[in-house]
Amino acid sequence: MKTRRVLMSFVLASAMLAPVTTATIACGKSVGETIDDATITTRVKTALLNDPDVGGMRIDVDTTMGVVTLNGVVKSKEEEAKAMAVARRIGGVKDVKSTLQVNP
Question: What is the secondary structure of 57-72 as a DSSP string?
Answer without folding.
Answer: GGEEEEEETTEEEEEE
